[in-house]
Amino acid sequence: MVLKRLGYWLLLPLLLVALLFYSLTIKGSVQPRKISSQDVRESHQLLKSSWQRLVADDQTQVLALDEKHLDALLNVATQSLRPITFHGSLTDFGLVIHGARSLPAPFSERIFYFSCVLAEQPAGFAIESCKLGKLPLSGRLMMQLMRFSLWAFIQAPEDKLIYELFQSGRVQQQTLSFHKQQAMRIRPELAAVVSGGINLGVGTLQGRGAPLPLEPYFEVLTELAKAHPEQRQLAFYLQQMLREAMHRGGDSFEREASTALWALAISAADRRFLRFTNGTVSAEQIPELPPLLLSGRRDLALHFLYSAVIKMVGNQQLAIQIGALKELSDAGSGGSGFSFVDMAANKAGIWMVQQLGNIDRKQVFTLDTDDFEAAFMPIWHDLPEGLSERQLNQALGGPDGPGAQALLTRIEERLAALSLYRADAKPVARFTNSDIERLPPPKLTLIADLHLHSRFSDGSRDIDWLAQQGRQFGCDVIALTDHTDLSNKRFNEQAYLDAIRSARQKYAPLRVLSGLEWNIPPLGGREHVSVLLPQLTENAELLKIFRQRYDNERNLSGEDALQAMAWLEQNFPGVLLFYNHPSRKDFSAKENLWDVKLWRQQQQLLVGFEGGPGHQRAGASYNWLYRTVHGWDPAVAVVGGQWDRLLQQGERFWGASSNSDYHTEKLDYRPCQFSRTHLLVSDNSEQSIFQALRQGRFYGSQGNFIRELDFRLQLPDAQTLYSGDDASVAARQAYQVKIDLSLHERDFSGHPAWLDKLELILITPDAIRTVPLYPERSGQQYQVSWQGQLDGDFVVVRARGAMQTAEGQWHYFYTNPIRLLRSR
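-> structure tokens emitted (824 positions)
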């Protein structure tokens, strides 16, 4: 009997829940709404102008709402308050508003539903009745709820005035209008806050919280600006402010960090944010900061800070949707276009506010500025931006289409992987005991220039001339890498391959490789990759297909690069790829690390950086944020840079190549005249050349002062390793690095050649450092030996050296690495 009664008591709550559920829901489906940029612009203008008329010192019509305006507002409301979808209709009898939300399986045939009827009544315009599902709600009750909400949100006397304004509503000729009966006495601070909120797209207020103690953080920002007048990076200021919050906050770090973020946003983004802080700080106390940049861009810094503030003022959904609405507005005629890059910055600002309590404090104090930026800002350079509304709809299915949602999901995944909020986010090395077949010791060195352009794209010379000049300046191998994007009307696949075959026959034994310079998607031609094709796979029809599918500069999806690589591997077996001038147009150094790891996650076709880019007569054409370092890309030249980090994380990736990228005499030296890639091969066959490139058996030099370089690592068991090799050895294994170097008498311009610098770069799990070497010299011969020991799980060793001419110009050479892995 007891169990039976207990069963009844357990069953009763379930029955009540079921009854409530079926009372609040109805059968049906949600009818979707589609928003446009015009909806966003009209809604913004309507609300802004209505508020301006509301606070004007006269009697006037505040708002006139017809069916067109109602649709625009409901579209914006649906976008802002998803997953609720709003619908409505306006007739001479009044206004009907209803909203619905779909339910997941197994209740997908039902929806949460509510509706309200608003109409003129004897006492004025009012909510006549409402329904929540099947439950009727009294209009009088809803009016009382509205009045209480105004009081709680705004306070007297403005709450009463706005309530009276609502009651002034009239419906005539299917238009709902509201009229002021007298000049409304709105407090100046309330008018400023609400007006500012409408202008900023905020539309919400912080409330009546305690004033934020901003003064100490303003003082810190003032001192930072004085001490670092050239500093423009948002990451620098943000990092310093978080450090200050940690010093001041103790156990209340999250609160202090929020205050610090407020101070930075007020100072660096918009002084009007001060209105939301309930503080007593005057505008004169706000520091003067230079325009700050995030990933090299001012707009991204503003998007980050604005979204962070909106999140702190309102809520996450509101902050995200305000950003999305702004982008949709920009996609309209005359706008800058829809930008998923801006969306990434918006979400990064929101994410930081959300994750303040999870910030890894060690990273705040130990990371340099660039790494700190990479720790809180997701990679974005492969995201599309500048999309018109037509492009957004056609390519991605609109702002809510599957393509757009896939890109937003990608941003969310990158946010979740940001290291600043994960103490365990240190990259895990992918080192394994190598099963790659090691090449035999090299027998000869071939001089190569693997990046040349002819008249088939934007070069000034034909292929025959390039081959002739290459042979004259000492090339054993050249590669034609003309642009093949569809905008290049000079390119013809069959004629291009025929010209290459003709040069092979005419200038043998010079090896003339066929290739192309690929605008790798989805970067719109900003990043280039050399594609080197073995002779056995040359096919004009397949090359044409590749151009049309993957080199049209219109691809929006990052996956297109991976699809293209899979297609290349299937149709051109043995193909090799090099990442050309990797830092030339970067906004952040982290882009190179990201690109390489993305493009190598499925295929290993991409084997290296073009470490020594061309255009050396013109400073390598690095005119964005990054410059070459003595002619070499910083990804390779900077110790601890992107190449070293890839090596530290276990990638077998090469950076010691140097090419002319020949286009014109004004920009470039001739093939092999200044820049050279030295291939260490068994013979001069194409097979040996491609093996050397794939396995890292090459080094690069500039200035043509190097005659021969023998860089090797010797083990006690008589094993000798060369560039690109690796071996498994016991813990604490001793090894010996040997370098034999032979120089020409003079460099490319006739200066006497000598060696001014020689050093090793050692990469271990915990450090990347240089070791200076002091070789013995005999004429133009240099020789040195250095002893080392494997103290951890691995060591990667690479070398570089340089001469400085009497005029002060530096010529550098770089080797590819040798790796020792501790055997398991």
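The chain has 24 helices and 28 strands.
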